[in-house]
Automatic annotation (TrEMBL):
Protein family: Belongs to the ABC transporter superfamily.
Keyword Transport assigned: yes
PANTHER family in the record: ALIPHATIC SULFONATES IMPORT ATP-BINDING PROTEIN SSUB (PTHR42788:SF13), TAURINE IMPORT ATP-BINDING PROTEIN-RELATED (PTHR42788)
Protein name: NitT/TauT family transport system ATP-binding protein
GO molecular function: ATP binding
Keyword Transmembrane helix: no
Domain ABC transporter: 15-247
Length: 278
């Protein structure tokens, strides 16, 4: 296992979210408060997850960090610069893999060369490296329709990481996968993250996935969302998937589930008396 001190020097940059809130439909007379003010400081190279009920504002927060949606109050800083337009040094992954069906897997990954005007030869070297690391060389010249859902998602993961962005924003990227493939992609993501340590903001509905992957987890209240717990996950890396059985892993999961139960996110579930970490 890797001690925290043995990990790669972060290639990531810090993100600071100060007093950031979001109201949709401002000026319509009937604004909708989607997010209450949020304050979070994310150090360079941290892997942070956000969990919370559907509709609590997770995607809204992520889009604002990416500069794709304007915040109503506050300030977001990425690498010390205030976000006022789309951040470019970023890799974004959504729930749907969003591969172009008329391009091969390799050409989908190479999209950055066209969009970002990156050096094609350099990008191709890095792309091939990643296809090899994820054991997907055989898929490189296939079209998305010729690949399984899990393979498509992993190609999409390569596309998110290939230009070595210093910030990676992932919104439920594994939502459409079966449980086994999900574990595989989770392991792949941790391996790739450990190698360069970009700053990652990862949204998931899976509490186990958040605990399995993160340095830190933000728990959000139901809508309008605010951060109600900020949990440091102190588990060694890499984290084997069987960690799910370990008591310390379970304690983190319980702590988050208890929030959800208390907030009415989980109904009709009987939880045993609290023994969780605090
Ligand atoms: N463009 C928009 N205009 C108006 N309301 C919006 C807009 N986008 C999101 N909302 C509302 O803001 C709230 C937060 O939405 P958001 O998509 O951020 O939730 P979420 O936490 O990502 O949910 P899920 O887990 O289901 O993806 C929801 O009530 C949603 O309906
Ligand atoms: Mg969402």
């Amino acid at each position: 296992m890797t001690a925290q001190s043995d990990m790669a020097t972060p290639s990531g940059v810090p993100i600071t979210i100060s007093n950031v809130s979001k109201a949709f439909g401002e000026g319509t007379g009937k604004p909708f408060q989607a997010l209450k003010p949020i304050d979070v400081t994310i150090p360079a190279g941290e892997f942070i997850s956000v969990v919370g009920a559907s509709g609590c504002g997770k995607s809204t927060l992520m889009l604002m960090v990416a500069g794709l949606l304007k915040h109503t109050t506050g300030e977001i800083m990425v690498a010390g610069r205030a976000v006022r337009e789309p951040v470019t040094d970023v890799g974004i992954a959504f729930q749907d893999h969003l591969l172009l069906d008329f391009r091969t897997a390799f050409e989908n990954v190479m999209l950055h060369a066209d969009i970002r005007k990156m050096d094609r030869a350099k990008l191709a070297v890095r792309a091939k490296e990643l296809f090899a690391q994820l054991r997907l060389e055989h898929a490189m010249n296939k079209y998305p329709r010729q690949l399984s859902g899990g393979m498509r998602q992993r190609v999409s993961l390569i596309r998110t990481l290939v230009h070595d962005p210093s910030v990676i924003l992932m919104d439920e990227p594994f939502g459409a996968l079966d449980a086994l493939t999900r574990l595989q992609v989770r392991t792949d993501l941790e391996t790739l993250w450990l190698r360069r340590r970009p700053t990652v903001v990862f949204i998931t509905h899976s509490v186990e996935e958040a605990v399995g992957l993160s340095d830190r987890i933000l728990v959000m209240s139901p809508s309008p969302g605010e951060v109600i717990d900020d949990i440091k996950v102190d588990l060694p890396r890499p984290r084997p998937i069987v960690l799910g059985d370990a008591p310390e892993f379970g304690a983190y999961v319980d702590r988050i589930h208890r929030h959800f139960e208390r907030l009415g996110v989980l109904h009709g579930i009987t939880m045993p008396q609290a023994t969780a970490v605090q």
